[in-house]
């Protein structure tokens, strides 16, 4: 059972919004006492997803939450956009697959960096990616 | 009667200017530290002159009319100058709002006998002067944005210095986020410097990069490839432990690139490539 302890939303419209988001995520991670390695993983994952959102989804919203499950505390980030959506999620989750001439590591890499990862996408309506990193995960 | 408000403003120009100027002098927001009273007087006079020259009974109710272009221009100049001089938005806004107040005072003085007319004319004046105020705001913000834009460019220029650390060895400390625009600047500076100095080794130090995601990695790989095409070796240094772990999990392949944990070890490696050794010289103590 996941309990939300605090939440905060940030709108992402331009590339200039990436750095403030990263700083905000870092602030939250530091506040719950997350170690440097996990902090870096979380910030990198946030950076990947927010770039995806800007590049393919024309921006969107990021929900930053501090969550707890049992004795674990962590940070959950939910990225939602109203972009074109992803037609084949399995393909998008493959290493090296990209429609945008990038390395194609954003989604699969993020999944490896995080403890929990879920993605829902409807073509024509948008994509929602939710990730959780536990403090000691 | 005041139904000819434009005429009224023209004939009472001196009184209007004087009233406005006195109002500005009496205001708490007067900044005689930033601008002398003579300058303020000159600015006020210029604006009142232009306004009374262009205004007539028809265009007073069309605040966007091109008749006012001259007024707009003067307003924009004054505002841009104030933004540069460090006036606050409030002080700049009050400049035009105090003119409105003065005109309304003048109207009330001269036409207090006909309240309906007074109300209608006041509305027109209000509408016109509010539009002037909006132009002031727009120009003010635009001037500030220009300042910010210039600073952004300056930051990206000064934050990508290419340093020649040794004959044939260049170092490029990257600080902050590496986005596409920044990579372009970094790459251009580096490649140009390689040509200028005839260097054969470039060290990219990423100690100051907070997070290396796949886009940053891609940019780094591109920079390394371009350097290689120029015939120089490229070393990436400053990979912190947490960054190394993140890169591995992300699945970024940097195996084709020489990477080092610190700038010092990169420099040592570069010396090795150049067949240079650094030795501690056994000196005679008396020499120091």
TrEMBL record, chain A:
InterPro entries: HATPase_C_sf, HATPase_dom. It comes from the Bacteria. The lineage of its organism: Bacteria, Pseudomonadati, Bacteroidota, Cytophagia, Cytophagales. Pfam families: HATPase_c (PF02518). Residues 37-137 form the Histidine kinase/HSP90-like ATPase domain. This is Anti-sigma regulatory factor. It comes from Rudanella paleaurantiibacter.
UniProtKB/TrEMBL annotation, chain B:
InterPro entries: Bact_StressResp_Reg, RsbRD_N_dom, STAS_dom, STAS_dom_sf. It holds the Pfam family RsbRD_N. The keyword Phosphoprotein applies. Keywords: Phosphoprotein. CDD domains: STAS_RsbR_RsbS_like. Residues 159-270 form the STAS domain. PROSITE patterns: STAS. Gene3D superfamilies: STAS domain. This is STAS domain-containing protein. It comes from Rudanella paleaurantiibacter.
